[in-house]
Amino acid sequence: MKKLRVAVLMGGPSPERDVSVSTGRQIVTALDPERYSVLPVEITKEGKWLPRPDMLELPAGGTGSKQRGNPGGAIAHGRSGDIAPTTYDRFVEREQVDVAFIAMHGPFGEDGTMQGLLELLGIPYTGSGVLASALAMDKLRSRQIFEWHRIPVPAYLSVTADVWRDRGHVHQQVGKALGYPCVVKPNAVGSSIGVSLVRDASRLDPAIEKAFAYGPIVLIEEYIAGTEITCGIVDDPATGRPHALPLIEIVPHADFYDYDAKYATGGSDHLIPARVSDEVAARAQAIAVRAYQALGCEGMGRVDMIARAGDIVVLEINTIPGMTATSLLPDAARAAGIPFAELLDRIVRNAMRRADARPPVTPPTS
Ligand SMILES: Nc1ncnc2c1ncn2[C@@H]1O[C@H](COP(=O)(O)OP(=O)(O)O)[C@@H](O)[C@H]1O
Ligand SMILES: [Mg+2]
What we know:
The protein is of the alpha+beta class. It has helices spanning 17-30, 88-94, 113-121, 130-137, 139-148, 161-164, 167-178, 204-212, 259-263, 278-295, 328-335, 340-357; strands spanning 4-11, 36-43, 49-51, 99-102, 156-159, 182-186, 196-198, 218-222, 227-235, 242-244, 248-252, 268-271, 300-308, 311-318. The site of magnesium ion (MG) has 3 residues, from strand 14.
């Protein structure tokens, strides 16, 4: 059987670039060399595509990878002299890519833009399509859809620069509708970047200013005190039906699950199974799948939630969850008996199934 040539795309200009490279490395090292010929590609901050065959030689530096390097003789690169960054169109002309594994987080990778580019290039890709990716990245719009589906979300206010001109009014609204502590976050970043836990009104302004540095919409939310849980989802590669993985409870060693708690070794504990009743766990998994389907997610995803007395609240969906050595989706899959390489295999097979099922772009001529 001919090996599929998989380009693992990582990096990019987003603030989550470093996490993405870490996810990408992990994927490059673990993809099954019997099935795949792996081409690591770093998207530079300037948006150029840089083949990184050197990554095939390096250990990923984490757990979960089945092998080091790339045994099995996968061809990393056609012409060894061509490893300067190039434009995406030249890149795809030169390399024959069967499928792109998008290992990018945040803007320009997870938000539908890379997905749109790959659609135009006719290259199958992993994970959700353009619309679901864009919606999931936008916490406000995804929340509006969740609300329509009666999926519980935290009470929140959205603030634009225009609204923020009347700070007194915003303060009044927060006091009235949310109270303190509250949580302030940018609408469309991930990895807890720009997120603040605000304990009293005197800390609100700097938190909002900080979040505005990442985009034009800021969310202010009621603080949900409870058990933080997350539910990984992988589609069945044969049918495309979403399958909820075991819940993970996150116990951050900080006020909340901030950037360091997410990525520093020992920054948080992941408990599987989560310390919630079987009934709550089943309900959380069902809510996660509903939220995933409400946005039209595909391939894989991870739904962040908080369980508090009697009720489960959805914080967000990640369409390209982290797959670093400390990441949650690979842990959840492992707990379900799915080793990391098998998880990646399912994700790639979902991409190929979607591409095969796709109707032709040009209508048939009569
Ligand atoms: N409303 C909230 N109540 C309590 N904690 C929250 C709330 N919103 C966010 N958090 C904390 O901040 C973290 C990051 O928030 P999240 O909305 O998931 O954004 P990101 O896309 O950056 O992961 C969460 O994992 C949680 O620990
Ligand atoms: Mg999150």
